[in-house]
């Protein structure tokens, strides 16, 4: 089945140009399955596994009923602590190359089946440290596991409003404007799939409108895009000069090597920035955690001291109550 049955809700009118969304999240949260739900077909490999099924950044495209194009970029488990910084930096560059016209929304895939982890919090804040706070203006939280909530007669509002919802998750959702949507990637009901995709695309349109129709970009994006366009222009120029096939092949190889060297330099720069900012972020989170522990310890000591004082007062009152009262003697009046 293709994605042509999706009909986008037009609550926030924007141009009918292609939309590009990027899926990020921890392995097992359902990134690829969510991508397949959006596209309306099994475009990405998706199966339950303790190890990431997606091993490299991929882009798949669908054309919607109104002719609008949706580009979905699926990434490996960039939120996994086991993934090395050099791999992450390479995949970030690959993601930028695939999203050549910019990113309209970043879909952070979370799961209602697992508790929001410090690993996920660190990864999201790491994106902020690397790309700046503006990144949150483009974020939408997509919660997979809608089938499980439905079985328990729960809504996403119930899940997020409960006492078990961790404060760090609430803080992250607040930073991205509380834009969130629930997905059931297991549903066989086509109308239900279309409805949840409509809700998501409505949020994407909202993000586009709130950002003045401008996709996300920054210095790193601009530099990668410049290198990609430079290579394309050089190749087109060589093709128009009337060189022989052998000469064109030789020149293209030279240009490709130069291009790869430039992208390697950008990748190393991203990796260096990631290491530095990750260390700073980890130290900040460790300090905050230590401060919370100290505050909890202080509160526990104060509570214990208060309880000890109350017990002492009760003991003193009970002892006073149990103490025999002295008898008063009567004086005979003569």
TrEMBL record:
CDD domains: AIG1 (cd01852). Residues 16-225 form the AIG1-type G domain. Residues 306-323 have a biased composition (Basic and acidic residues). Keywords: GTP-binding, Hydrolase, Nucleotide-binding. GO terms for molecular function: GTP binding; hydrolase activity. Pfam families: AIG1. It comes from the Eukaryota. Residues 296-334 are annotated as: Disordered. Belongs to the TRAFAC class TrmE-Era-EngA-EngB-Septin-like GTPase superfamily. AIG1/Toc34/Toc159-like paraseptin GTPase family. IAN subfamily. This is Putative P-loop containing nucleoside triphosphate hydrolase. It comes from Rosa chinensis.
């Amino acid at each position: 089945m293709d994605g042509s049955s999706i009909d986008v809700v037009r609550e926030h009118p924007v141009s009918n140009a292609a939309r590009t969304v990027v899926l990020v999240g921890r392995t097992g949260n359902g990134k690829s399955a969510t991508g397949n739900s959006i596209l309306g077909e099994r475009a990405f490999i998706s199966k339950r596994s303790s190890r990431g099924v997606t091993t490299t950044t991929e882009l798949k495209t669908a054309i919607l009923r109104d002719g609008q194009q949706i580009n979905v970029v699926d990434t490996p488990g960039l939120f996994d602590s086991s993934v090395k910084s050099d791999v992450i930096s390479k995949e970030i560059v690959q993601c930028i190359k695939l999203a050549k016209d910019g990113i309209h929304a970043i879909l952070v895939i979370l799961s209602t089946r697992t508790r929001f982890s410090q690993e996920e919090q660190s990864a999201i804040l790491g994106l902020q440290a690397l790309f700046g706070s503006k990144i949150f203006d483009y974020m939408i939280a997509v919660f997979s596991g809608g089938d499980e909530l439905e079985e328990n007669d729960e809504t996403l509002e119930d899940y997020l409003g409960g006492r078990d919802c961790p404060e760090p998750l609430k803080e992250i959702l607040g930073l991205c404007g509380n834009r969130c949507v629930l997905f059931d990637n297991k549903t066989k009901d086509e109308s239900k799939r279309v409805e949840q995709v409509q809700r998501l695309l409505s949020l994407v349109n909202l993000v586009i409108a709130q950002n003045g129709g401008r996709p996300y970009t920054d210095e790193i994006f601009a530099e990668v895009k410049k290198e990609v366009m430079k290579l394309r222009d050089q190749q087109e120029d060589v093709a128009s000069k009337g060189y022989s096939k052998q000469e064109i092949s030789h020149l293209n190889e030279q240009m490709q090597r130069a291009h790869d060297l430039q992208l390697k330099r950008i990748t190393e720069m991203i990796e260096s920035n990631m290491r530095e900012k990750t260390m700073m972020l980890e130290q900040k989170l460790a300090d905050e955690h230590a401060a919370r522990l100290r505050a909890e310890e202080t509160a526990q000591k104060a509570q214990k001291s208060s309880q000890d004082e109350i017990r002492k007062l009760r003991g003193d009152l009970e002892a006073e109550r149990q103490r025999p009262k002295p008898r008063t003697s009567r004086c005979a009046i003569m």
